[in-house]
Amino acid sequence: MSGPWRQAMLAGMERELSFHPEVQLHMLDAHDNSRVQQQQIRELLHDGVDLLIVSPYEAEPVTPAVEEAIAQGVPVVLLDRRTASPQYSAYVGGDNLEVGETAARYAARLLQQRGYVAEVMGTPGSSATAERHQGFAQGLRRYPGIRSVGQVTGDWKEKTLKPALTKLLQAHPEVTVIFAHNDAMGRGAHEVCQQLGRARQVKVIGVDGLSGAGEGIDLVQRGVLEASVLYSPGGEEAMRTALSIMRKQPYKRENTLGTIVIDSTNVRTLQQQTDKMVSQQADILRQQGLLQSLRATYASQRTVLYGLMVSLLGAIVLGGVAWQSARKNRLINQKLAIQNAEIDAINHQLVSQNEEISQQRNQLEAMASQARADTEAKLRFFTNFSHELRTPLTLILGPVEELLTSSPDLTTAQRHDLGLVRRNTQRLLQLVNQLLDFRKIEVGKMTVRATEGDLVAFVREIVDAFEKPARLRGVQLRFLAAEPVLRGWFDGNILDKVFFNLLSNALKFTPDQGQITISLQASPDGQNLRVSVADTGRGISDQDRAHIFEWFYQGDQGAVAKGSGMGLALAQGLTRLHQGQLTFSSRPGQGSTFVVTIPRELPPDLRSAEPATTTVFALDEPEPLPDLAEPEREPAGLETGSETLVLVIEDNAEVNNFLARKLRTDFRVQTATDGHTGFRMATDLIPDLVVCDVMMPGLSGLEVVAKLKEDWRTSHIPVVLLTARNAPEQQVEGVQAGADLYLTKPFNPAFLLESVRTLLANRSRQREHFRRELSVDVATVPASNPEQKFLADLTAIVEANLTKTNLSVEDIARSLGISRMQLYRKVKAVLGTGVTDFIQGLRLTKARELLLDDTLTITDVAYELGFSSPSYFSTSFKTRYQISPTEFRALHITPHA
């Protein structure tokens, strides 16, 4: 119970119990010792308490004692911390994760989402320390421009943190916000800042928000703390919950206390409310003391009255005294009634205030819930929007690519129109990608993976892509680098989009015969690299300057075609994500200059050992059409002579028909339009390969893959997933589900055909591997995967029936619980052979083993293995091994001496 926060918790319990004099509170302090706390709980159970309120010091050690209390029928209310077991009556406590996230949001507001922070943490290993740190770190991830320089352990005390914090602030003078895990450590952090002469520059955020001299509210009022995040002790709530349980009244099992930020905007109001509550509590205690005194007086007077009445029977003279005593008692009762009415009014006022506070907390929770729902709706919108755009892009780009590369009879006009369609389709795909990048930046899902490289060579490669479109319009591109090589750490995938958007914007607004200059240089101190893109266009108007970096803003673009309003906003967001800045200057009628400044060095957590793959963009300007490739062979009919069966599962009818038409040139194709039908057809037909879409109603593509891989009948079938979901984590999800290949829409039809051929070739090599496992020395296959388990089950059934001459494929299929066709296609897919050949091979392998037993004749071996006659056995054996059974026995059995 040491420390002001614990004392506030106990004071809250006592305040609530002041309204219930019939209830006694017995408090024991374990002094931060779990073993002592466990003993105290058992002692209280032995003493016969009606209810336990436990604030565990550690979760695991105290759990058995709490479970014993529940088993004995004693309710247990957990306060502030939980145990390791779900066996408890109710829990009351704050949310430390929410405290950390609230502090992060307030810090971001102070820093305007850009700057450096430090963190002063509590006792290592404490759940409050871990959760507040985790919540603070999670909150900061939403603000890429804010960086945490490090943490200092204060152990909940202000003195222990001062040397380490002084050293940290001296090493990082750029820190302007400190988040301390309690107000005491926040006061110590302020003292350190005063010693360093930085008290005005550094703002300190504490936690607890207690009232009283030297506590959170007082520190905020005096300007020692910028703010304190309220972490309610919860004493009143715990006692109210306990009383509800004891009275068999309804109660909430989980009572999570809310939090607010106490700063200069509300600290005076909270202080006044606190002072008023303390004053009212003092009045209540004073009134209760007076009430007890009056009740004692009433009891003594009643005794006197009884004595006088007895005396009255003996002496009439004492009657007057008895009348006076009765009159005095009536006055006392009237005074008691007045006092009780005053106490009831105070209680009603306190209840009203508590209800008002509860309503405010409920409103804050509702607003937070609505914000989360709005965020989820935004995410669903972007995901569905990108999917809906990528599907028609597949149907446009695929046929256009095929016509341009495999149709030599196109006229020049037709080829030009098709090139126009392809370029605009690629531009639409680029806009979709920019929308997805916008979503990733908004939710903090895009990360920097920088590698060390030459920025001059990187930018020159991007500029070269604009050389041809600029030359067609007579625009001069000038590339000026202050040094031949400028090395630094950067993420090419992010900066590629930044420079592409800046150059595309410059080319669009530069008139014909104009000039664009791209310059690269290091900053004077060598810490930063600068890339500027200057054009000779019409410039930016004063009206548009304040809005050009806003998402979807389209200013006055004159005669130039309207854009999407995303390019510059995306470029600025990506530059900030890269720890850099994007600025601009412009003079109307003379042009604009955009400057990208990025740090030459990046923190280790933003570096990657593997270079990122950059995105290839398509330009809107006219470009030469590619040389004609050799035309593809047109299919002679709807089906080829191939025995290979491919199953296509796609809910979009046009994409389904497009895939089937492309695949029928080389394979037999069956189609399904939903996941349930596709899975049923896969188990019936046992195809050689499945091509499946991910986003389908009913059964999704990921669920189809999982069901195919779990079913031993179809576990061997390679699966190609097609989807518009191109995020890395979504691709990993597809591979984890069991897909052999993950292609994003729009896809290249030639690449799809080559991928299918490669997967089938790999499957053929796997069949050879399984056939080698069925060697003459090993008659059974170890079941390490579904295919090998199938072979093990098949081998066991055949070996158990080797003596049957009439063993048929139908008998084996019936034993496995599948149809004859399913068995045939499964064996053919796994081993590349028929079921009858497999049975024959197994019999001949077993024959080699039995021929080594000289007690058996060749005729015995033939009938033992189910051959119809010894001659048929000998013929089959010699055909397989090029040696007769007699010669085999003579070679392997040594004659007896």
Task: Please explain how this structure is put together.
The chain is of the alpha/beta class and 897 residues long. It has six domains: 4-93, Rossmann fold (3-Layer(aba) Sandwich); 95-232 and 253-265, 3-Layer(aba) Sandwich (Rossmann fold), CATH 3.40.50.2300; 268-394; 431-606, Histidine kinase-like ATPase, C-terminal domain (Heat Shock Protein 90, 2-Layer Sandwich), CATH 3.30.565.10; 645-771, Rossmann fold (3-Layer(aba) Sandwich), CATH 3.40.50.2300; 774-892, Arc Repressor Mutant, subunit A. Strands 5-4-6-7-8-10 form a six-stranded mixed beta sheet, with helices on both faces.
Brief overview:
With 897 residues, this protein is α/β, with parallel strands linked by helices. Helices cover 54% and strands 13% of the residues.
Secondary-structure map with pairings?
Elements: H1 4-17, H2 34-47, E1 52-54, H3 59-71, E2 76-79, E3 90-94, H4 96-111, E4 115-121, H5 127-140, E5 146-153, H6 158-171, E6 177-180, H7 183-195, E7 203-208, H8 216-221, E8 227-230, H9 235-246, E9 254-257, E10 261-262, H10 267-314, H11 319-406, H12 412-443, E11 451-454, H13 455-472, E12 476-481, E13 487-490, H14 492-509, E14 515-522, E15 528-535, H15 542-545, H16 567-577, E16 581-587, E17 591-599, E18 645-649, H17 653-663, E19 668-672, H18 675-685, E20 689-693, H19 701-710, E21 719-723, H20 728-737, E22 741-744, H21 749-773, H22 786-800, H23 809-816, H24 820-831, H25 835-850, H26 858-864, H27 870-881, H28 885-892
Parallel strand pairs: 1-2, 2-3, 3-9, 4-5, 4-6, 6-7, 7-8, 12-14, 18-19, 18-20, 20-21, 21-22
Antiparallel strand pairs: 8-10, 11-13, 14-15, 15-17, 16-17
Helix pairs in contact: 1-9, 2-3, 4-5, 6-7, 10-11, 11-12, 12-16, 13-14, 14-16, 18-19, 23-24
